[in-house]
Amino acid sequence: MNDDQLLRYSRHILLDELGIEGQERLLAAHAMIVGAGGLGSPAALYLAASGVGRITLIDDDDVDLTNLQRQILHDTGSVGRPKVISGRDRIAQVNPGVVVDVVQARADEAQLTALARTATVVLDGSDNFATRHAVNRACVTAGVPLVSGAALRFDGQISVFDVRDEASPCYECIFPADEPFPEQACATMGVLAPLVGIIGSMQAAEAIKLITGIGKPLVGRLQMLDARRMSWHTMHCARNPECKVCGQRH
């Protein structure tokens, strides 16, 4: 690291668990973020500020005025622009040392798998089960840890699925694709603005832990937040040995 980097990341370096070695791992890391919306916004900003060297943003949508209530990666001047371009410009303002790749498309599973193979960690901030399952399958195939988050109305959830850990379930183990949950969207159900900030920031924290090897990631635990009471509940989740996605791995 050069002098500017040592100063910029000094508050990380002061952490004994992280230090210079951990910061160097962040600088060498590549985080892939699916969705540049409510969850992807705080996740991207904190990962960029933390010095993750390369970030790939994947989103096919444009910024809408209704997004600005919670999607802090964008501002009023971004309305009508592609979210990935708006996000790239904002990240450059936060930390010009971060390389930002953008994929302005609803990436299919083949694309997601190819991109995941280049990533250190994948963060899923998408808003539909089809994409979540596609991202999960891509991460299982690529052997890359996945930090999954969701938020709707006053309820949020987060977990880590790490196929490198033999005991870790994947997303399919907990939410089987052939047992679909009712699709609900912010556009019709609403969402508390700071809720996506809480979950997205936690996704960034889990990603940093996975990159640097510090702490204990949320593997095998689904954390659920009721923001009305600000109460957390933990569901312990075991791997399904007959899972259609990860059951064959050794």
Automatic annotation (TrEMBL):
It catalyses: [molybdopterin-synthase sulfur-carrier protein]-C-terminal Gly-Gly + ATP + H(+) = [molybdopterin-synthase sulfur-carrier protein]-C-terminal Gly-Gly-AMP + diphosphate. The keyword ATP-binding applies. Its EC number is 2.7.7.80. Coiled coil: none annotated. Signal peptide: none annotated. It comes from the Bacteria. It holds the Pfam family ThiF. Keywords: ATP-binding, Nucleotide-binding, Transferase. CDD domains: ThiF_MoeB_HesA_family. One of its GO terms (molecular function) is ubiquitin-like modifier activating enzyme activity. InterPro entries: ThiF/MoeB/HesA, ThiF_NAD_FAD-bd, Ubiquitin-activating_enz. Homodimer. Forms a stable heterotetrameric complex of 2 MoeB and 2 MoaD during adenylation of MoaD. Catalyzes the adenylation by ATP of the carboxyl group of the C-terminal glycine of sulfur carrier protein MoaD. This is Molybdopterin-synthase adenylyltransferase. The lineage of its organism: Bacteria, Pseudomonadati, Pseudomonadota, Betaproteobacteria, Burkholderiales.
